[in-house]
Amino acid sequence: MKEPKAYEVFAIRYATVERRSSENFIGGDLHDAGMPMDYFVWVVRNSEKTWVIDTGFNAEAATRRKRQFLRSPVEGLNLLGIDADSVEDVIITHLHYDHVGNFDLFPNARFHLQDSEMAYATGRYMTDSFFSHAFEVEEVVGMVRNVYAGRVEFYDGDAELEPGLSLHHVGGHTKGLQVVRIWTDKGWLVLASDASHYFANMNESRPFPVVVDIAEMIDGWKKMNKLVDDPGRVIPGHDPKVMERYKAPDSSMEGIVVRLDV
User: Fold this and answer.
1) In this structure, what are the phi and psi dihedrals at residue 119, rounded to the nearest 5 degrees?
2) Does the pLDDT at position 245 exceed 90?
3) Cβ contact 229:188 at 8 Å
4) Taken in order 122, 155, 220, 200, is the CA torsion positive or negative?
5) N or C, where is the chain less crowded by C-beta within 10 Å?
6) Over 90: is that where the pLDDT of 30 sits?
7) How many whole angstroms separate alpha carbon 246 and alpha carbon 261?
8) What is the phi/psi pair of residue 222, to 5°?
9) Where do the DSSP E strands lie in the chain?
10) CA distance 151 to 106
11) Contact, 56 vs 13, CB < 8 A?
């Protein structure tokens, strides 16, 4: 079989919030300390194709939810030479406000989403604030409108999008959470999104408190580790350590963009 064409992978930091470590683990943390949360969108590209993964939230949502908004994710894309108007494909890992806000800034994109995520975000569980608080109803309704406009591609479980790029349903955090597996020059890499907010969630087997199924979340960690040759190449969705462990492509992107495949 021909080896797939390797992708570059980038994380774009667009917001942050101060938190305590006790807020980031079920059961709290005996050594409670500051443990901030960063917010990212991601880019996967090679010479043939560019994919955007998630679309973040905007300044209004940041004010409403008391997050520190640093920049529009679109500004980070621009630093990588990507115009949101030209993006053809956006993978939505799940429909929480910090992953699907700003979808309107991608007017020519198709959105790739799990069947089970749309069912979850529009179904019975949304009558309970424990599950619904991380969703924005207008964003969910907006994605339904995109369905009717023929702009959403649905998946029922794992799926290969292109050689070297695939979606893998893990659930746990939400019913339809999907992670993304990417072939790079250094081997397989997985973008975990909220399958693990921090390295510590999956590496220390300490689930994040926003969860619909803890057993699925833990099974998701095991599944992701099987998708890579090195567990260190599973990248969490919100950990500030990502910005410390990986380097910016050049000095103009310091503190904003890091490259994950090198």
Assistant:
1) -65, -40
2) yes
3) yes
4) negative
5) N
6) no
7) 9
8) -65, -40
9) 8-17, 37-45, 50-53, 68-69, 89-91, 110-114, 152-155, 159-162, 165-169, 178-184, 187-193, 234-236, 257-259
10) 11
11) no
pLDDT at 178: 98
Residue 210 in contact with residue 135, Cβ under 8 Å? no
Mean pLDDT of 51-61: 97
pLDDT band for position 2 (50/70/90)? low
Please give the Cα distance from 136 to 197 (Å, whole number). 20
Read off φ and ψ for residue 89, nearest 5 degrees. -140, 130
pLDDT tops 80 at residue 131: yes
Return the half-sphere exposure (C-beta side, CA atoms, 13 A cut-off) of residue 123: 11
Q: How many CA atoms lie within 13 A of 178 on its CB side?
A: 30
Per-residue pLDDT tens digits for 60-77: 999 999 999 999 999 999
4: confidence class by pLDDT, cuts 50, 70, 90: confident
* Average pLDDT score over the chain: 97
Pair type for strands 89-91 and 110-114: parallel
Beta carbons of 178 and 20 less than 8 angstroms apart: no
Please tell me the chain's helix, strand, coil percentages from 3-state DSSP, rounded to the nearest 5.
30, 25, 40
On whether the CB atoms of residues 55 and 73 are closer than 8 A, the answer is yes
182 alpha carbon, distance to own chain's centre: 14
Whether the pLDDT of residue 112 is over 80: the answer is: yes
- Distance (Å, rounded) from C-alpha 134 to C-alpha 65? 10
Structure tokens at 128: 């309970």
Strand partners, 51: 44
User: What is the DSSP code (8-state) at residue 247?
Assistant: B
